[in-house]
Design goal:
Helices cover about 40% and strands about 20% of the residues. The protein is of the alpha/beta class and about 300 residues long. The protein has 2 domains: about 1-210, Spore Coat Polysaccharide Biosynthesis Protein SpsA, Chain A, CATH 3.90.550.10; about 220-310, no CATH class. Strands 1, 2, 3, 4, 5, 6, 7, 8 and 9 form a 9-stranded mixed sheet that branches. The relative contact order is 0.11.
Length: about 300
Amino acid sequence: MVAVIIPVYNTQATLARCIDSVLAQTMPASEIIIVDDGSPDDAAAIALDYAARYPIIKVVRQENRGLAEARRTGISHAAAPLVMHLDSDDTLPPDAIEFLYNKLTANDLDIAYGCFLRMPQGGKPYNIEHAHEGEMTASEYIARSLDGGAINSSCCNLSRRSLWTDDVWPDGPERVPSEDILINLRLAFNVKRAGQYNHPTYCYYYNPSSLSIAGTLWQLDRWIQFFTLMENTLIEHGVLQHYQRQLHSLKVFMLAFCTHDVNPRHQWVKQVLDSRHDGLTRKTRVLQSLLRHPRLLRFLILTNRRLKALF
């Protein structure tokens, strides 16, 4: 009934923990598909050892093509009608599949999200939650995916395999930041009903070397490329004007929190800062103003993070 897709690259230290968490589910997966994305370490050997012991585990091997392509490969090898994505350095809480399956079937959903349980190194785990809970129409799902009202991740959800059409995946081999947001936006146009719930269904382990945390993809030119792809997706579906406010909120948020060395005089940044839309939240308006003073904004963000760490 449920296939769990696990892409693997250079995660021999955590792969067993990851697989064990799926095997320990209160509602068992019908298949576990491990995609060895050309991993240079012994992760593939670990995966093959598990496959020899558990018939539900299948190992697929390919040349390194990146996380999104590994997930796509996993889905292409899945037979189950429902799929769940799991990164090989993370785990699932014991009731993750059961909780999401019950929500999806009881509410006739195409995709059901839980929330993250963040697992910091040496710290106390805490939930990263959705801004809103409950069921949504397709239009509401798109809006929340854009304006921060939902967790944008290919993980922590259970979805119908039929949603994952070829046009969902990024174009070409070049990496863009926050790839999951782009994937989720494209996926959303295949969704009729979605649900999001603040029940932890994914354990996210802090990895200081990941692309998003290390800042490898934080350059402004990458974000301009990302938002061009987002806008093109909305144009293709004829809804760019309808979601301009939500898209603008996302641009402000990413500039404030995910971009290094913001230059308010840069033409694209200036366009974002000068844009005005009705219905923006107070937080978005404040961030938009503070982005004109990037050093002050960075100081306030870092101060806020230090204060949170004290409690």
